[in-house]
Amino acid sequence: MDKASGSSDNVVSFPEIDSFMSDRSTAEYRWAKQVTFDGNITAMNARSLLIEDEWRRLASSVRQVFPGLLTYGGAAPSLSPIASPSL
What is the pLDDT of residues 65-79, one digit of tens each? Predict the structure, then answer.
Protein backbone atom coordinates (compact mmCIF):
# COMPACT_ATOMS: atom_id res chain seq x y z
CA MET A 1 0.00 0.00 0.00
CA ASP A 2 1.26 3.48 -0.90
CA LYS A 3 1.81 5.57 2.25
CA ALA A 4 1.32 8.95 0.55
CA SER A 5 -2.02 8.25 -1.08
CA GLY A 6 -3.32 5.28 0.84
CA SER A 7 -3.86 3.41 -2.42
CA SER A 8 -2.38 0.11 -3.47
CA ASP A 9 -1.54 1.17 -7.04
CA ASN A 10 1.80 2.63 -8.13
CA VAL A 11 0.57 6.23 -8.32
CA VAL A 12 1.73 8.53 -5.53
CA SER A 13 -0.66 11.37 -4.73
CA PHE A 14 0.10 14.39 -2.59
CA PRO A 15 -3.16 16.37 -2.37
CA GLU A 16 -1.51 19.29 -0.57
CA ILE A 17 0.64 20.03 -3.65
CA ASP A 18 -2.36 21.46 -5.52
CA SER A 19 -3.05 23.94 -2.74
CA PHE A 20 0.64 24.81 -2.45
CA MET A 21 1.02 25.42 -6.20
CA SER A 22 -2.16 27.50 -6.35
CA ASP A 23 -1.08 29.65 -3.39
CA ARG A 24 2.41 30.08 -4.80
CA SER A 25 1.10 31.04 -8.22
CA THR A 26 -1.24 33.60 -6.68
CA ALA A 27 1.56 35.07 -4.55
CA GLU A 28 3.94 35.38 -7.51
CA TYR A 29 1.23 36.99 -9.66
CA ARG A 30 0.50 39.56 -6.94
CA TRP A 31 4.23 40.24 -6.50
CA ALA A 32 4.66 40.77 -10.25
CA LYS A 33 1.76 43.21 -10.35
CA GLN A 34 3.21 45.10 -7.39
CA VAL A 35 6.78 45.42 -8.67
CA THR A 36 5.64 46.39 -12.17
CA PHE A 37 3.13 48.92 -10.83
CA ASP A 38 0.43 46.84 -12.51
CA GLY A 39 2.15 47.28 -15.88
CA ASN A 40 2.64 51.06 -15.64
CA ILE A 41 5.84 51.52 -17.67
CA THR A 42 6.20 55.19 -16.66
CA ALA A 43 6.14 54.27 -12.97
CA MET A 44 8.55 51.37 -13.60
CA ASN A 45 11.02 53.67 -15.36
CA ALA A 46 10.76 56.28 -12.60
CA ARG A 47 11.45 53.61 -9.97
CA SER A 48 14.42 52.33 -11.97
CA LEU A 49 15.92 55.84 -12.12
CA LEU A 50 15.36 56.31 -8.39
CA ILE A 51 17.14 53.04 -7.60
CA GLU A 52 20.05 53.91 -9.90
CA ASP A 53 20.39 57.31 -8.21
CA GLU A 54 20.43 55.65 -4.78
CA TRP A 55 23.21 53.27 -5.88
CA ARG A 56 25.26 56.14 -7.31
CA ARG A 57 24.92 58.10 -4.03
CA LEU A 58 25.95 55.04 -2.05
CA ALA A 59 28.98 54.43 -4.30
CA SER A 60 29.96 58.08 -3.97
CA SER A 61 29.77 57.88 -0.16
CA VAL A 62 31.85 54.72 -0.11
CA ARG A 63 34.43 56.30 -2.45
CA GLN A 64 35.04 58.98 0.20
CA VAL A 65 36.58 56.33 2.46
CA PHE A 66 37.54 53.45 0.12
CA PRO A 67 39.50 53.98 -3.11
CA GLY A 68 39.58 50.30 -4.19
CA LEU A 69 37.48 48.36 -6.67
CA LEU A 70 33.78 48.26 -5.82
CA THR A 71 31.57 45.42 -7.02
CA TYR A 72 28.01 44.38 -6.50
CA GLY A 73 25.95 41.27 -7.10
CA GLY A 74 23.52 38.88 -5.49
CA ALA A 75 25.96 36.00 -5.81
CA ALA A 76 29.73 35.81 -6.25
CA PRO A 77 29.60 34.64 -9.89
CA SER A 78 27.53 37.68 -10.85
CA LEU A 79 29.75 40.42 -9.40
CA SER A 80 29.83 43.50 -11.61
CA PRO A 81 32.14 46.49 -11.37
CA ILE A 82 30.68 49.81 -10.32
CA ALA A 83 31.55 52.73 -12.59
CA SER A 84 34.50 54.81 -11.49
CA PRO A 85 33.77 58.28 -10.08
CA SER A 86 35.13 59.88 -13.24
CA LEU A 87 32.29 58.47 -15.40
Answer: 998 888 776 655 555
